[in-house]
């Protein structure tokens, strides 16, 4: 079970002309990610996904291999700690942790295949046979006035019971978009909103005041990730739950927020926060402070599979048999060939849930022909 090699495959899927979509700060014209391939000495291969710019990840690969090749795959977390401690001048918020995240997914996938166990049994044990999702859409586009209602209509036709939409252009625009979504989806669908850190505290308060009557499930990233004091003030004031975490790295970042009880729902992204290695520590911090958790997912089908295993392994504490709000995994509805086409058996929700794979490792099979079509040259 010794690591023999690690390689990165940069992927990019260009969106069609006029098809850019995204958030209050920018629109995406392509979807990109880095696929991680980790090979053990016996030829067993694990697959992972690393966030960030693929070209930057590739530049880190020689450094990473120097620490990890020759390491027993079950000892790999000690090597991560050594890297972060030795290269502390690099910081944790950036490429080193992106790469560790994808490598950790791949390592757990490979270990599971070797041991004949699914990843969820390696990271805490199987607590759930299926996980609930929320549909993430309602994106801003080059022509949001034209494109918003068709996105919401597709959510309604899809029967989604929990959805998230993008806001953050202005408080007035926020109310207009949420009012439209509530009218089209009806009173019983759980609607979350995402500002993508585009507001200051005063604007966030104005927006939340306008949105509260529409029964919002949570307001996501209302403030900059650096504004911990602002989050603390907002969480104390807000009648709507506050969620954040997709731009936070390692348990250290989350601890600063959690210690101040400045958030209601934490949202680690396993492809950038440190993989399962840090995800488990973040979940432990949340459980100890009785906070909800919902992993952020906005990459390929590999990252989605990792999030499903992660949530399936989490305890329901402080609940028991009756769980008022199940832990939700984000399921992106945007045009994204990297989510489905690179896997032969992509995970897809049915009636609002994804069945947790029980095959060894992550339980997914890569379509290498499709990967080749999306490989960034």
Topology:
Layout: E1 3-14, E2 21-22, E3 27-28, E4 30-40, E5 45-50, H1 54-68, H2 76-86, H3 95-115, H4 119-122, E6 130-137, E7 140-141, H5 144-157, E8 162-166, H6 171-185, E9 190-194, H7 201-211, E10 216-220, H8 228-237, E11 242-244, H9 250-259, E12 265-266, H10 275-288, E13 292-293, H11 301-312, E14 328-332, H12 337-340, E15 353-355, H13 368-374
Parallel strand pairs: 6-8, 6-14, 8-9, 9-10, 10-11, 11-12, 12-13
Antiparallel strand pairs: 1-4, 2-3, 2-7, 4-5, 6-15
Pfam families: MR_MLE_C, MR_MLE_N
Protein name: Mandelate racemase/muconate lactonizing enzyme family protein
GO molecular function, one term: magnesium ion binding
Plain-language structure description:
It comes from Phreatobacter stygius. InterPro entries: DgoD-like (IPR034593), Enolase-like_C_sf (IPR036849), Enolase-like_N (IPR029017), Enolase_C-like (IPR029065), Mandel_Rmase/mucon_lact_enz_CS (IPR018110), Mandelate_racemase_C (IPR013342), Mandelate_racemase_N_dom (IPR013341). One of its GO terms (molecular function) is lyase activity. With 377 residues, this protein is of the alpha/beta class. It folds into two domains: 3-116, Enolase-like, domain 1 (2-Layer Sandwich); 121-368, TIM Barrel (Alpha-Beta Barrel), CATH 3.20.20.120. The protein is built from 13 helices and 15 strands. The strands form three sheets. Strands 6, 8, 9, 10, 11, 12, 13, 14 and 15 form a nine-stranded mixed sheet that branches. The protein has a three-stranded antiparallel sheet with strand order 1-4-5, sandwiched between helices. A hairpin with a 4-residue loop joins β4 and β5. The two termini are 32 Å apart.
């Amino acid at each position: 079970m010794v690591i023999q090699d690690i390689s990165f495959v940069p992927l990019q899927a260009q969106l069609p002309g006029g098809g850019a979509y995204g958030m209050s700060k920018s629109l995406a014209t392509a979807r990109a990610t880095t696929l991680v391939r980790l090979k053990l000495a016996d030829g067993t291969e694990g697959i992972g996904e690393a966030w960030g710019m693929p070209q930057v990840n590739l530049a880190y690969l020689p450094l990473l291999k120097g620490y990890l090749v020759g390491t027993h795959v079950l000892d790999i977390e000690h090597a991560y700690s050594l890297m972060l401690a030795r290269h502390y001048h690099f910081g944790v918020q950036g490429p080193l942790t992106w790469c560790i995240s994808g490598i950790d997914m791949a390592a757990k996938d490979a270990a599971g295949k070797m041991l004949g166990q699914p990843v969820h049994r390696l990271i805490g044990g199987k607590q759930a046979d299926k996980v609930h999702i929320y549909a993430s859409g309602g994106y801003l586009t080059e022509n949001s006035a034209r494109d918003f209602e068709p996105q919401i209509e597709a959510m309604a036709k899809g029967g989604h019971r929990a959805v998230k939409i993008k806001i953050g252009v202005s408080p007035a625009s926020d109310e207009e978009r949420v009012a439209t979504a509530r009218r089209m989806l009806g009173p019983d669908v759980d609607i979350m909103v995402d500002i993508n850190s585009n507001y200051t505290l005063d604007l966030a308060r104005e927006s939340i005041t306008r949105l509260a009557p529409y029964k919002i499930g949570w307001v996501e990233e209302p403030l900059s990730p650096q504004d911990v004091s602002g989050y603390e003030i907002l969480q104390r004031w807000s009648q709507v739950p506050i969620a954040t975490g997709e731009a936070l790295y390692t348990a250290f970042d989350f601890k600063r927020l959690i210690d101040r009880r400045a958030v209601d729902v934490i949202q680690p992204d396993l492809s950038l926060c440190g993989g399962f290695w840090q995800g488990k520590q973040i979940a432990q911090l949340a459980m100890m402070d009785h906070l909800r958790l919902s992993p952020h997912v906005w990459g390929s089908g590999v990252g989605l599979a990792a999030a499903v295993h992660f949530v399936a392994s989490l305890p329901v504490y402080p609940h028991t048999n009756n769980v008022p709000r199940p832990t939700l995994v984000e399921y992106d509805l945007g045009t994204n060939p990297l989510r489905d086409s690179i896997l032969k058996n992509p995970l897809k929700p049915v009636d609002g849930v994804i069945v947790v794979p029980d095959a060894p490792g992550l339980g997914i099979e890569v379509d290498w022909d499709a990967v080749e079509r999306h490989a960034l040259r």
